[in-house]
Amino acid sequence: QVHLVDTGGGLVQAGGSLRLSCVASGLTFDNYAMGWFRQPPGKEREFVAAFSDKPTTIYSDSVQGRFTISRYTAKNTVYLQMDSLKPEDTAMYYCAARFLSSISWRYWGQGTQVTVSS
What we know:
The chain is an all-beta fold. About 0% of the residues lie in helices and about 55% in strands. The protein has strands spanning about 5, 10-15, 20-25, 30-40, 45-50, 55-60, 65-70, 75-80, 90-100, 105-110, 110-115. The strands form 2 sheets. Strands 2, 4, 5, 6, 9, 10 and 11 form a 7-stranded mixed sheet that branches. Strand 7 and strand 8 form a beta hairpin. The termini are far apart.
């Protein structure tokens, strides 16, 4: 059974940095794509970053150049390094996984809150 645990959120001032972690169990990165999403207060959940099938990394326009997704295969862990944070980055952040052959993100972490103060 696939299980994702995302941690690392917190309160940070604008311009600061945070690193989120997602520990995955029940899957291997060879068969799954991994990504990060976020849901700002009062808004829909939106894509942030992911490893594509190639594997290459893709980012939303709003975080391109500021956020970096990476993974440590030996620990089955995916990271999201967030630099130059802005108040508009405030959101609940979720790790997600999908089969490489699927377009639907099937598995989700419980979420970790990121709050950026101005």
